[in-house]
């Protein structure tokens, strides 16, 4: 099976505006320091790391919200590393993103139906409102929600709107950036289960960014562990949990508080 | 789930209606001044000089708020003066908002060198002391209503630009803007559909504030006789004249002052009330 | 005399009869760590806020007692209450970013409380600030005390907030989701720190969280809340062997655990939610008849 994404030696640095001199460019901070990996079609990839690991930046580079400084990103064989918006637009249908904070990723002054339908009308797809309501159903929400505004919904429901918006275009690839981090345990379980069903039913390729390994375990086939802009481990999901190779991975695994009141947790540094 | 928003809406309703009531009365009085005003605002008659308002002894019928030292009816002059105030408020306010907000949106969203140029322009522009600047402008352009309006626009557009730029920047960082980009929306289209609706409440408040400011600026200029060139009454002019006779006829100064105050207050409250009323987030 | 005794505490949305806390009763022993668990909107934060007197303006206590070492906080006049709370209790807030004033250095933010509310002199307050920063394992406390919040990392700021809470040797600390905003590795360090500080100072702790995993590691007893109603109160070990209430069981089933990697994360089933909602409604019915 051909690879949907190929990332080769990806570097990305951003200007450090806090240290900008009066004249001249700001010094750059390197966030991604040479990442290489492929994502085969149909795979669910987990990208895990702490804050500052660069996982969000990696996600945004993959959907070209940010432009890499060097290296290559190929989507379905096409080099999208330095393409401009015009060149990217025909491809934009095929890769979509779901954002972490549903409050800032849904325009508070647009109705739910409009939010979901917007990308559809942008790409000239017929019948955007009908498709938007279909998408609502697919994520398990009633069609009547179309007339509501984001602030009238709960966190879990808003996150499902974000998912509906992403799948409405019927993309090949979805990037989910920490989408369950702010949710209740119950809403979290619900969102994950919806995602799992959608991946299976729509044949999606999914990249799931999270800092929570226990969530990743439920969803992903393969895991990339990022630490300070580098990949420290790249393994199949169960293999990683059974036998973590990198020290940082072990540290991450140890940090998860299991709902089991055994005493030794604090002792394991 | 309920929260304190219900309380906000209640008080917003009252002040909105009060300010709309005053402004509506002002607009009707100004537009229909020839029909509504009891007297000719320009007619001088020394026999009717310094008549007090209707509730005081010595008042005459038909001169409800009294007359000034030249015998001209205060109420009629206030109504006609209201015309000047409203024209300035509307034209200067809208034009300032349009220019300032557009530049602010462009600077705040597109960033880069466009932002640098516009921001430096705003900074330099704002360094000029506004009152001196306007007097200088009028000296160059000559007196008259259009000069007054132009002076206000030239000075105050920076207020909008600064604030709208900050808001546009904050909006630009929102994930729904990123989402629009991921969906393939062009930058200009994004400004219109995603950013502008969220900045509109602020622009509305600023606009009504600006209208109030425009009224005051015109009053200041007409106070120092740099506003309209004809004999038509202005509130600032009335206040200036009223100063001279404040001990004998306080009403000549006080009533235009009250009209000025109520108008400016109503504009600002109107803005707050409108913003709350039409914001779907608060519903 | 019991240490903290809350009885029949009800809080409403001001101006309505909609209850945010429904006849909440619970007991905390001195030096005990009690977890307050529930989903968002369950009212777990509200209990701590009612105790500390920092309820939002939109909320209002309508009934109940909160007895701290025998004194009913709700019947005290406001000034006395503030003084008592200032001396005996403290808060570890959720967001280290907004809990510190960005325009002031760290030192006055710790010492102000000691000087103003406890009446200490500056010198003693300064010494204590350094001491307590040492206790939370901040190296170079002098430099940190002279810094501004934005110069420090999130984990460091949370340490400072913890230090600040323990500085005046309070008898009770309310920790309001103190690790929710933190990275998972930092969370473990902070939890470990809280655990050690609590043991060292013997402070009672009301630990608010939505994460059952955290409760398991740090609490001795827990109270499960739904819709402002106490659903279950139990000893932690007994609870995790098998919760008594169906809703608690469902919450546990939705929480990922290492020991059972194959288990599907099931959301709380509809019938369970319906049952606990019925419980809430029944509580309201009996309340409005009282």
Given as residue ranges, the uncertain stretches of chain C (5+ residues, pLDDT < 50) are none
What is the overall silhouette of chain C?
A: globular
Q: Number of DSSP helices of chain C?
A: 12
Biggest pleated sheet of chain C: 6 strands, mixed
Can you tell me the CATH architecture of the domain at 1-94 and 215-269 in chain A?
3-Layer(aba) Sandwich
Number of domains of chain C: 1
Question: In terms of per-residue confidence, which ranges of chain A show pLDDT below 50 for 5 or more consecutive residues?
Answer: none
> C-alpha Rg of chain C, in Å?
20 Å
Class per helix and strand makeup of chain A = alpha/beta
Count of β-strands of chain C:
10
CATH class group of the domain at 1-94 and 215-269 in chain A = Alpha Beta
Give the distance, in angstroms, between the N- and C-terminal Cα atoms of chain C: 29 Å
Q: Overall pLDDT of chain A, averaged?
A: 88
Let me know the number of strands of chain A: 10
| N- to C-terminal distance of chain A | 42 Å
Describe the largest sheet of chain A.
6 strands, mixed
Order of helices and strands of chain C: EEEHEEHEHHHHHEHEHEEHHH
